[in-house]
Predict the structure.
Amino acid sequence: MTATGSKKQKARGLFKRATGLLARFNALQNELKAVKNKLERTEFEAKLFREINTALTSTFELQEILPLILQVMTTLVNTQGVSIALVNEEDKTLRIAESYGLDPKDIENFYIYYARINTGPFKEVMEKKSPSFFGPENNLYIPLLMSVPLVSRNKVIGFVNIHSMYQNKSLTPDKIALVNALASQASIAISNAQLFNAMKEQATIDPCTNLFNFRYFQQKLDEEINKAAANGTALSLIILDIDFFKKVNDTYGHLYGDQVLHEISKILKSNVRSEDTVCRYGGEEFAIIFPNCTQKIAERIAERIRAKIEETTANDRRGIFKSPVTVSVGVAEYTPDINKTMLIHRADCSLYYAKNTGRNRVCGYDANLETEYEKYLPKNNY
């Protein structure tokens, strides 16, 4: 081999080595870039998780917590369809409390096939208390890739469900880890919200009748008066009293008296609108707040309730009532020139008149009743 050939061969060797080093350098650059991106993504996710945790712990309102969880799930995990189903402990059923990207037909199928906890795919997830994965082989009536139980105090309170991924991307191990971490945070936030709402409900619900109590009545009436004053809308109030209730207690005992209160409460709730507020005012007295309702209409509703109570208790096929029960009702309407105290006074004034002119009747407020109220008040004839 000539000197020239030797140099060319050496040059080719050097070029090959340089090419190899350059390829390795580029590969290392790509690896470093990937590591950098992963670190940045990890740092971003860690920062986002801190922000999420702060947001979730700053409120006890489920209607704020649940959308936030799904929003983060969609952003970080790239989910297309996702839902949160919560457990109803009373009847052991599931309800979709929040969802994103789910077809209405899928929601319908969920309630048809999987609303009961003791059947379907969620039974397995609940028993295992760990995430489960699903595919076409499971032959489900809804799309479902992954279900993660929301566990609080060793009890499953719901599920985070991944139904589909954006552009049909796969659930990678990293994304699965994110879902599990989010579900863990969600469990704490949802459990705290449920506990807070249960405590709030206990503070506003009368345990005997399951109606709102007097404290809540005062707050709600303030709220409705403010709305009526601001919007110029009608607002009426009725106060209802069970006739001769002391005699009921003295004759049949207080346990039966409590049963009567409970049954009358159910009749009241089933004969008003969803926007009306039924409260136990105290003892055997009840109050109902009727927003967007004039006194004339409230009187008709009150008469319907009075007749329903009389009819139900007099023709009781269930054997709950030992004797017929009747009620007296006073009705009044809010006007801009009066305050809450005066509105209650007017309803009370009407009730007094109803009770002292025969009972088992409805009386609407009239200014002339004021003198009658003063006349009957000292009798305290209840």
User: Anything to note?
Assistant: Strands lie at 79-88, 93-100, 132-133, 146-152, 155-165, 235-242, 277-282, 285-291, 327-333, 362-364. The first helix runs from residue 3 to 57. Residues 13 and 303 are 106 Å apart (CA to CA). The mean pLDDT is 87.
